[in-house]
């Protein structure tokens, strides 16, 4: 299945996979508001055997087939903190 991947203008490391290149306007309004302006990152042919960095390709494919999109949320990042030597 061919899909288009967009990054969010509002949330770093949030990505939206669309089954239809022009499908952004058909998304639920709350999703569009939270996602912000989409910027195309890439388009690719997605199969269940394809490796993706942070999500399972099978889950993405299923969401694309059922609802036409998949929202990849940012990972929970915790900065490395150096508290120095403590007594």
UniProtKB/TrEMBL annotation:
* Pfam families registered for this protein in UniProt: YcgL
- Domain (YcgL): residue spans on this chain: 1-85
What highest taxon heads this organism's lineage?
A: Bacteria
Gene3D superfamilies, A to Z = YcgL domain (3.10.510.20)
Which InterPro entries does the record cross-reference, listed alphabetically?
Answer: YcgL-like_sf, YcgL_dom
Which HAMAP family does the entry mention?
Answer: UPF0745 (MF_01866)
Question: What is the name of the protein in this document?
Answer: YcgL domain-containing protein BOV88_04830
* Taxonomy of the source species: Bacteria, Pseudomonadati, Pseudomonadota, Gammaproteobacteria, sulfur-oxidizing symbionts
């Amino acid at each position: 299945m061919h899909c288009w991947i967009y990054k969010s203008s509002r949330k770093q490391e949030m990505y939206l996979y669309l089954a239809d290149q022009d499908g952004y306007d058909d998304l639920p309004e709350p999703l569009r508001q939270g996602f912000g302006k989409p910027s195309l990152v890439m388009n690719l042919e997605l199969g269940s055997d394809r490796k993706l960095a942070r999500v399972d390709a099978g889950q993405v494919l299923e969401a694309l087939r059922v609802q036409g999109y998949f929202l990849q949320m940012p990972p929970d990042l915790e900065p490395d903190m150096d508290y120095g030597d403590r007594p």
